[in-house]
Amino acid sequence: QHRTDFDGFRQHVQENRWGTVIEAVAALLMVMVPLRMFWSKERYQAGSGGHQQDGDHHASKTVQSETVDAGIRSNLFWAYAAMIDIVAECLGHLSSVSEACPCHRGRIFMEGLGRHARRRVFQQAHGVPSCPMATLNAPEFAAGYHLSIIQQLCQAALASVLGHDLVRCLEDAERQLVISDFDRARRHIVFNLTLKLNFWKQLPWALFA
User: Fold this and answer.
1) How far is CA 2 from CA 32, 37, 68, 94, 100, in A?
2) Cα dihedral across residues 64, 67, 73, 79: positive or negative
3) What's the Cα-to-Cα distance from 66 to each of 52, 71, 73, rounded to whole Å?
4) How wide is the angle at C-alpha 18 spanned by C-alphas 30 and 94, nearest 5°?
5) What is the pTM assigned to this prediction?
6) CB neighbour list of residue 58: distance below 8 Å, 6 or more residues apart
7) Axis crossing angle, helix 172-196 with helix 145-163, rounded to the nearest 10
8) Could you report the per-residue pLDDT of 102-142, keeping only the tens digit for each?
């Protein structure tokens, strides 16, 4: 079973492409437990040794395996990955709220990796993939609903980070690093969204309230 998960892992991170980071982190977290349980740098190097070439290519492979080994064994690496996944979920939740309808909004909370099934659950519950009133949120946005949602999402995300098992098991300095970087991400999200959505306070859009 785990071999299928590993063989099917095809994530690739492209520099400056946030979407590829999100996808890679989510995929890594899905295989974290068996990866940490069964990973062996020595067996990996022994198994790939016949395919490596001499010179710089060989050196590059060696350095890469050392880096991978350090990452897999690092509690900080996995806690940071969990924090990134929570930030991604926060953004995804905000997007889904913006695209949702006024009649099917639910309580704001972080769902973890299970959030990817949200659309399927909606269809099972209501018989359609989405509500025909989806995205018709002008009155709510003009009344400042989106600003309230941003704050609620950030509070829920912070609680999720602080309560995450991977974060709680860190040393104090490492935990502070994760929380500090999360706070930087939170401030960036709040600032940019507040700036971009500020037009709802101006005429004629404010009349929708």
Assistant:
1) 11, 11, 18, 33, 36
2) negative
3) 15, 9, 11
4) 80
5) 0.76
6) 52
7) 170
8) 776 665 555 554 545 666 676 777 777 677 787 888 888 88
Give CA–CA dist 78/197, Å, rounded: 34
Do the Cβ atoms of 26 and 6 come closer than 8 Å?
Answer: no
**pLDDT value at position 83?**
96
Q: What is the pLDDT of residues 75-89, one digit of tens each?
A: 999 999 999 999 998
3-state secondary structure 109-176: CCCHHHHHHHHHHHHHHHCCCCCCCCCCCHHHHHCCHHHHHHHHHHHHHHHHHHHCHHHHCCCHHHHH
CA distance 84 to 103: 30
Conformational region of residue 110, where left means phi above 0, alpha means psi within -120 to 50, and beta covers everything else: beta
Q: Which residues of the chain have pLDDT under 50?
A: 50-61, 113, 115
145 burial via Cβ count (<10 Å: 0-12, 13-18, 19+) = middle
pLDDT at 197: 86
Q: How many CA atoms lie within 13 A of 36 on its CB side?
A: 14
